[in-house]
Amino acid sequence: MKEIILVKEKELKKAGINLTEKEFSEKAFKYSLVFSAILIVIGFALTELVTALVIGIIGFAVAVLFSVKIPLILKKRKAKKIEKHLPFALMAMSVEMNINLSFEKILKNISEGNYGEFSEEIKKTEKEIASGATIQKALFNLSERIDSKILKRSISQITSIYEHGSEEKGEPIKQLAKELLSRQKTESKEFTGKMTMYSVVFIVLSAIIPAMFQAFVTIGSTFMEVDFTPVQILIITTVFFPAVNLGILLMIRSQTPEFLKG
Predict the structure, then answer these.
(1) How far apart (Å, rounded) are the C-alpha atoms in residues 18 and 12?
(2) Sign of torsion, CA 106 112 113 118?
(3) Do residue 24 and residue 50 come from a single domain?
(4) Domain-located, residue 28
(5) From CA 206, how far away is CA 212, in angstroms rounded?
(6) Tell me: the pLDDT tens digits for 50-95?
(7) Are residues 132 and 196 in the same domain?
(8) What pTM, to 2 d.p., does this model score?
């Protein structure tokens, strides 16, 4: 029987998940079954068995789909963390190219610099070079490990300068760094504009709607028959509304450019 592979090993490596295709798939199905079993138990305690089983099956499918999405989310996050520090690392490289430092020394300085995830990846590149790989091959492997078009473009530019040289030395790298910084500035302005809308939505859902709901329950129960039980009202005010607020905050954080995060 053919094994079911949820995610290719190449994608797992880009996401920083050190598992084989088979191991990841096994873990995904295992935890999805556990999640499904928990839903069935809870559902059976609150409703009929058939309904509980349907909920469990749906929960299993959702958990498997979420498992497939995890590597995609992680590799995008990793790429954004690299891109966050990339312009500053490129700027430093351009300066060191202009003073004629050796390429090996430039890579060493970047790996020891404060460039976050990018410094860590350059350390891996240095290890490959120390093991016998050429600088071009090690840099190519770096671009393949990270799912980032910006990084691939930067590595291509760096490799070209290393192989063919340049009369302008570090100037092409400097211009690329400036372009990336300009792009970050544009993204920052766009996010600032979106924050106004997010703030209004958050205020409405966190303060206005809960207040209107409580007023409706309090005043409405005086003049009309309200279908909400005390337990339902308690759950709505202490669980549902806070969960919605948390969801909005998580959404805002997910939309925040990586370079604006701490």
Answers:
(1) 7
(2) positive
(3) yes
(4) yes
(5) 11
(6) 888 888 899 899 998 988 888 888 888 888 989 999 999 999 999 9
(7) no
(8) 0.74
